[in-house]
């Protein structure tokens, strides 16, 4: 009876919510049996109350003889015996301590570990405490599949702490944005218009390529990718390529940088005078046709103009009537102007002028004579005439005086 009374007294000294020290007696069947120091009261510490990892081995956490600090959860009375034990938890004690540590830490960046993909976001763990990151706060772009973050450790900013509601919200996106802002500011401080910088192709679009300059993405417009015309970005660069580009313009406020890839590579007009000269006869391909002539590619990236008047000795109403895009032609170089990037070409200069038909000149001359003869001769009318009167003033009439005047 005295021993039972002592047991009751010791039990009365242990209450749910108490933080106590216990010694591990045995570890068996996924749980540890402990005795609470100073009371002789036994407790049960299960794997679930040690860790959130249900596949873990309890022997990796405790072994016989260990001393652990635990939180008393509730009293358990055996069904077949009069023994009284308590369910204790090491995990929840750590969580309580974590909650206490979180008070007033909103805005602080901590390292968390992704534990489970849940509806609407990602469940994470911080010092034994379970937190939640909404899907919209995981990255700067919306993440549909959060599974890839499970098992990863990363930094996140504490947004909200409410121990009473068991509410712990964090944001990974803000950490990324702040890091990007710092990197962007550093990059902009080093950039200057006209400088040559090295970057990595981050992504391709229909209108150009975005180059990562180390925290800032600059755009190489499709017209600045190559000296060739009408190229597609994917035919020039690939994602992951390291390239040298020239800075064309900087708009730090808008966060935009315009770049050029072709400005760092030799152009087709560089040293063109050594490749092409007046009087040269070369082969070319018709690249495009206009109302005033045809553009013929005579060297890679160099198109020369065959003016409509230089296509043929015969009259050409429209270049499309005698030439077609893609046609191979032989041309003569009339002029090379490297400064203005202009080349003048001629096709007819390599063709013999067609002979005139026999008798054509005579016919033309006779026709011209006939035209001159058929043209009415313009008579110069005298503005003043001298008329001599007869010596006598008799024997004349008005007809005699004015008869030769045309009325």
UniProtKB/TrEMBL annotation:
Classification via InterPro entries: NA-bd_OB-fold (IPR012340), Ribos_protein_bS1-like (IPR050437), Ribosomal_protein_S1-like (IPR035104), S1_domain (IPR003029)
Location of region: Disordered: 353-407
Record keywords: Ribonucleoprotein, Ribosomal protein
CDD domains hit by this protein: S1_RPS1_repeat_ec2_hs2 (cd04465), S1_RPS1_repeat_ec3 (cd05688), S1_RPS1_repeat_hs4 (cd05692)
Coiled coil: none
NCBIfam families registered for this protein in UniProt: PRK06676.1 (NF005208)
Family statement drawn from the similarity comment of this UniProt entry: Belongs to the bacterial ribosomal protein bS1 family.
Protein name: 30S ribosomal protein S1
Organism expressing this protein natively: Streptococcus didelphis
Lineage of the organism: Bacteria, Bacillati, Bacillota, Bacilli, Lactobacillales
Primary gene name: rpsA
